[in-house]
Amino acid sequence: MMILREMILTMLLGIPAMLLHESGHIVTAFFCGVKVKKVGLSRVGLYTVREPGPRWANICISMAGPLLNLLLAIALRDMFPRFAWVNCIACAYNLLPIANSDGRRVLALLVGERTPQLRTAKHLGGTAA
Fold first, then answer.
1. Helical H segments across 1-129, by residue range
2. What are phi and psi of 121, to 5 degrees?
3. What is the pTM of this model?
């Protein structure tokens, strides 16, 4: 029973990690001058829809969510180690170059592919960016 309680607690910590991750994208889009059209929740997690921006802004916006998770993991590692671990996992997973991830979008932008779709869906353990 204790293991189940610990697993549920860890999964619940994913909710604020996801909200903060998505907030990183939104705030960075604002500062880059890219309009966020919609923020919502789907069956796979949080998502944002934004206007296309210049390549440099798209890279910054895509990196902002994982970077915020990494900064939270570092800053909170001593005070809230479980939340830090959840953010570390969220950062790492979001940087994987898998379909619909922040990592895939950044890789596509860096190698010069056409601008990837700008709808992003976020969820702990996997995101579409």
1. 2-12, 14-32, 55-75, 81-95, 102-110
2. -120, 130
3. 0.82
